[in-house]
Design brief:
The protein is an alpha+beta fold. Helix content is 36%, strand content 31%. The protein has eleven helices and 18 strands. The protein has helices at residues 2-14, 16-30, 74-80, 91-94, 101-126, 168-176, 240-251, 280-289, 302-312, 324-332, 334-337; strands spanning 35-45, 50-52, 61-71, 87-90, 130-143, 156-160, 163-164, 183-190, 193-200, 202-204, 207-209, 212-223, 226-228, 261-264, 267-268, 274-275, 294-298, 318-321. A six-stranded mixed sheet has the order 4-1-3-14-17-18, with helices on both faces. It starts with a helix and ends with a helix.
């Protein structure tokens, strides 16, 4: 051991400049600058992410479109300057003001769960199947910088001024019933302990708010049973529309894919409303790269998607939808369109 130690010391002394240079190169190449790089992603077949008990098979597929995002290390930033489809984005454009990366990840994880639960509710109700909401909870997932409150991210909202809170609607009604400047007494569950905090009501863009974003979490009892298989690195609500269509297709005998590769993006609310998303450029390019037959987008993103299609001379049909029902009606008529 002594001889080995002496040998190592000798090697280090003789080659210290090399090792110092190696450490410097590693540091420079792995140091994260306050930027991210967004690139065209790809598609994920939803059948690999969920399973409905005794679900009907399909000849085609429903697919999630995603954006590939890399941390802003020096090699990635240099590469982004050479590739026209790679865009450098400031960190503050990704992470909300007054939010840490950890809080952002937590919020997006809950948003994925909320989107999946909304997708189940929409799909099962439209397919005439049983689904019941159990154990509904509401969590704080973001606190605005100008918010005057004692709330913290991950707080579960239990009561507002003594009124029990189950979901967003309950909370919104409690806030709407207050006057500007009112101090709300909010009971929360924090670190497994109940605690009473305060929040001042103020006006923002004509709305009465307390300066927080809230995300619902719930347990669902569905018949037939459904299971999800998402990785811990996957998050966000933008796959809600396509998830609801894929679940619906597994619940009914008719195959609304008609053998096509259907890709899309858009959030989904429990009433079937489809919401706007970001990164449509990268998602559309990823869909085209994977030879998709159709690309579904929220109506708010349609003009942007159409411009990208025209600028790049894509032939893929762009389908604008504002609700689950609109998407469903389009898919049921695919055979007639073709």
């Amino acid at each position: 051991m002594i001889k080995l130690y002496e040998k190592i010391i000798q090697i280090l002394k003789e080659n210290y400049k090399f090792f110092l240079l190696l450490i410097l190169v590693i540091f420079v190449c792995t140091y994260e600058f306050p930027y991210y790089v967004d690139t065209p992603g790809g598609i994920i077949n939803i059948s690999s992410k969920m399973e409905v008990s005794n679900g009907y098979p399909s000849k085609g597929s429903f697919n999630l479109a995603y954006v590939s995002e890399y941390k802003g290390t020096l090699p990635i930033l240099l590469l982004a300057n050479l590739k026209k489809d790679w865009d450098i984005v400031k960190k503050e454009d990704i992470i909300l003001e007054n939010e840490t990366i950890e809080e952002n990840n937590y919020r997006n994880q809950l948003l994925l769960k909320e989107a999946n639960h909304n997708a189940i509710i929409v799909a099962y109700k439209n397919a005439g199947k049983e689904v019941q909401i159990k154990n509904q909870k509401l969590f704080v997932t973001y606190i605005a910088k100008d918010g005057k409150n004692d709330l913290k991210v991950k707080d579960q909202i239990l009561e507002v001024n003594g009124i029990s809170i189950q979901g967003k609607e309950d909370f919104d009604n409690a806030v709407k019933g207050a006057q500007l400047g009112d101090i709300l007494k909010i009971r929360v569950l924090r670190d497994q302990k109940e605690k009473e905090v305060q929040a001042e009501v103020y006006e923002l863009d004509g709305r009465i708010v307390v300066g927080v974003l809230l995300t619902e979490e719930m347990d669902l009892e569905a018949n037939p049973n459904i299971k999800f298989r998402f990785d811990s690195t996957e998050s966000g609500p933008s796959g809600g529309l396509m998830m609801s269509l894929a679940i619906y297709n597994a619940l009914i005998e008719e195959d609304i894919t008609h053998g096509k590769t259907i890709v899309g993006t858009g959030t989904i609310e429990s009433d079937g409303t489809v919401g706007e998303i970001g990164g449509v450029e990268y998602k559309l390019k990823g869909a085209v790269k994977e030879h998709a037959d159709y690309f579904f987008v929220p109506k708010e993103n349609y003009e942007e998607a159409l411009k990208i299609k025209e600028d790049n001379h894509y032939e893929i049909p762009i389908v604008s939808v504002s609700s689950f029902e609109e998407a469903l009606n389009y898919l049921k008529a695919i055979d007639k369109k073709d």
